[in-house]
Amino acid sequence: MFKAMKWKKPPLNKVYEALAVIADGRIKITGNTAQIVSSSGNKTYQVIYSPKKNAITANDNGSFWQGYLGYTCIAFLLKKGLVEFDHGLAKYLKGFMWKDMAGRFKHDYNQIDAFVEQEIAKKHPNFNLAEFHKQLEKILADAMKLDLNRLRSPKKPPAGY
Asked: How far apart are CA 143 and CA 128, in angstroms?
């Protein structure tokens, strides 16, 4: 009998990135597919969702190479309403250049998140970091509770910046 592959749990940082996609308006959904533009604006990723198979796939690097539920999939689930969230969270993550931060901090998600949180606190003095983390953890837990099957992406991640 065929056993479906499941997604690995991603780092919490991928929820930050997913909310940034929504805040920046970089997602376009058509039915059960989406096109997501990178923060640099130079790459476009594809998400394909199959409700019938309870499955999703995407060609972002994390989804394609690492096998965890990538930020593009999470953005799709949020935007499509499959995972509920406080829409006000997204405003905190608007305008960040994720590719640049990944290079600057050598893909250390803890350092990236700490930098992002410092920048948010500068812009929003009443920012409640503990509540923010609590809500991001809930988003991630709810996404993983969907127990989505992992489809193989038909396309490799786009190259370039």
From this structure: 23
Separation between Cα atoms, residue 59 and residue 26, nearest integer Å: 15
Residue 133 CA to residue 8 CA, distance in Å, equals 20
32: CB partners within 8 A, 6+ apart: 48, 49, 50, 51
- Amino acid occupying residue 82: L
Cα–Cα separations (whole angstroms), residue 159 to 26, 32, 42, 60, 147? 18, 24, 9, 10, 30
* Distance separating alpha carbons of residues 82 and 95, to the nearest angstrom: 24
As given in the structure block, the two tokens for residue 29 are 């959904």
- The whole-angstrom separation of Cα 158 and Cα 124 is 34
Amino acid at 27: I
pLDDT of amino acid 161:
59
Tell me the per-residue pLDDT of 92-117, one tens digit each, with 9 for 90 and over. 999 999 989 999 999 999 999 999 99
Q: State the residue for tokens 């709810």.
A: 142
Residues 96, 119: Cα–Cα separation, whole Å: 10
The pTM is what? 0.94
